[in-house]
Amino acid sequence: MKYLLDFNLEEFKEELVKIGENSFRAKQIFQWIYKEVYDFENMKNIPSPLKSKLKASFDLSLPKIVEEYTSSSDGTKKLLVSLKDNNLIECVIMKYNHGNTICISTQVGCRMGCKFCASTIDGRIRNLTAGEMLGQVLLAQNLMKERISNIVLMGSGEPLDNYDNVMKFLEIVNAEYGLNIGQRHITLSTCGIVPKIYELADKGLNVTLAISLHAFSDEKRKEIMPIANKYSISEIMEACEYYIKKTNRRITFEYSLVKGINDSKEDAKALGNLLKGKLCHVNLIPVNEIKEKEYRKSTKEDIDIFEKTLRKYGVEATVRREMGADINAACGQLRRSYLEISN
């Protein structure tokens, strides 16, 4: 049975023709889906014979919530979600004054091996399809009874390691027939797969590109991010310059502050020298402590000094607000703990 959410409108029109139906029905069916109707029987302007064919040929189910946690401090929701094959992923729903943001997963697990991230501990199990990514957003809207206005591809997995499915997902959520979420409200995070950054730049999208940098030198970056053994910081910076030139979009550099590893004033100066003059913003992230890892969060004093030092170099920087810390809201933590208990 085919998963209906995996299709864009043109593809679904073709699917309907294959089963002997008129292609114009595709838009009607999509309109029901994006009104949060996921049962073919409740699609009132769809004839009964077609409903029977749809039920026989297409799966329109959303992922299932296995566990749900709500932060007592800020209302952040963390969902552990089961896919059709019983693999588990996570997504996080964050409420802001400007709307609801969802952080979605793009893979089951991750093979990038970043040492401060729980998602990578067991490696990558498989890629998510475009429909499985979309399903997380629809599930969140169904749960919240409110529209999701911003999407962050920063959960479990490396989006550019699942490039084709991610591009299709971006197409569907941005489309007028879909969720119609503007590209400027979507952030895609990558640890720095250089060829794919160039490919993404050439697509001319208006999404925000976030680079997980976390260090100012190749030597230091290799200590915490295995991808640094393949692509140097200079190669990443060249790719970023190309992206900025092609899109005229500011890049965000993610920098997880780890106590005693990359959080000194000298580290901040080196990072400032690396980024000064670039169209960028630095998102400073107090690292989430994971029991399997030895990394610890920087002190508030060191974080403040780091931010002020970057600003002296003309580099705009902000400290990410910690949301959902009391519910293991960092990517991979909830799935990891659930698997440990289940086993």
TrEMBL record:
One of its GO terms (cellular component) is cytoplasm. It is found in: Cytoplasm. Gene3D superfamilies: 1.10.150.530, Aldolase class I. Its EC number is 2.1.1.192. Residues 96-326 form the Radical SAM core domain. [4Fe-4S] cluster binds at C110, C114, C117. Its main location: cytoplasm. Pfam families: Radical_SAM (PF04055), RlmN_N (PF21016). Its cofactor is [4Fe-4S] cluster. Keywords: 4Fe-4S, Cytoplasm, Disulfide bond, Iron, Iron-sulfur, Metal-binding, Methyltransferase, rRNA processing, S-adenosyl-L-methionine, Transferase, tRNA processing. GO terms for molecular function: 4 iron, 4 sulfur cluster binding; metal ion binding; rRNA (adenine(2503)-C2-)-methyltransferase activity; rRNA binding; tRNA (adenine(37)-C2)-methyltransferase activity; tRNA binding. It is an enzyme of class 2 (transferase). Binds 1 [4Fe-4S] cluster. The cluster is coordinated with 3 cysteines and an exchangeable S-adenosyl-L-methionine. GO terms for biological process: rRNA base methylation; tRNA methylation. Reaction proceeds by a ping-pong mechanism involving intermediate methylation of a conserved cysteine residue. NCBIfam families: rRNA_mod_RlmN. Belongs to the radical SAM superfamily. RlmN family. PANTHER family: 23S RRNA METHYLTRANSFERASE (PTHR30544), RADICAL SAM CORE DOMAIN-CONTAINING PROTEIN (PTHR30544:SF5). Specifically methylates position 2 of adenine 2503 in 23S rRNA and position 2 of adenine 37 in tRNAs. This is Probable dual-specificity RNA methyltransferase RlmN. It comes from Clostridium intestinale.
